[in-house]
């Protein structure tokens, strides 16, 4: 069989945390990374814009690269466009949601923090997850407007402002949470920094490993042997990193740090895409 390929789609660099999990579990898989950073952040956009842009860009990417699985590594996009995407393609699609259920199973004191974007914190689907899976728990929701921007800039070499980060995380200290859900794919990219800021937190939970396991299952259903997916074939698994705006400076170094090395980094892709003007909260 041909080498399996997975498309990872996000509005920025956050989906690289998902790509890293997929590579760690499935080193034989080639990855195409697609970021609509001209439309970043999706939490600012009307749902119709997110749906239209996501469909158009994913269609262009899957026409340029044969993909066996599509991962929508963006909470906002996952909540609004998965049915539309699944209706237009036969390629299996995986979305992301905050990992509330596994966090509840881990928490000892039943106090859980959800670190997300303001848009995710406001969305009914998060409230529904908490209602369905976190009954009897205290859930502290924290939607900070700047954190994803700090992480986007981190890729270019600008450090995260640790004093401001510490201040932003203070509600978790006051709530005494022992488990934190990383409800945005950007946040695992600064996992070590978050752990240093909140050493009292015992468990940090995100969706990356679960998504990688789901991707493995889908590839196995397509005839790829489980053992073959775990045989490394390339030290540079990212076949292409495609950005609708300017490709972030320093991205190559950042990919290497994640063990993802890529040889084809392109900005303004595809040429026909138009930038959008966003307003509101992420």
Describe this structure in words.
The protein has helices at residues 16-25, 47-64, 75-88, 100-106, 118-122, 124-133, 147-154, 162-168, 170-175, 191-197, 208-221, 226-229, 251-257; strands spanning 5-10, 30-35, 69-72, 93-94, 111-116, 138-143, 179-182, 203-205, 238-243, 265-266. With 282 residues, it is α/β, with parallel strands linked by helices. The strands form two sheets. It has a six-stranded parallel β-sheet with strand order 4-3-1-2-9-10, with helices on both faces. A four-stranded parallel β-sheet has the order 6-5-7-8. Helix 1 (16-25) crosses helix 11 (208-221) and helix 2 (47-64) packs across helix 3 (75-88). The longest helix has 18 residues, at 47-64. Residues 277-281 have low confidence and may be disordered.
Mean pLDDT: 93
As a whole number of angstroms, the C-alpha radius of gyration is: 18 Å
Content-based structural category: alpha/beta
What pattern of helices and strands is seen along the backbone? EHEHEHEHEHHEHHHEHEHHEHE
User: Helix count?
Assistant: 13
Q: Give me the side-by-side strand order of the main sheet.
A: 4-3-1-2-9-10
Ends apart, CA distance between termini: 41 Å
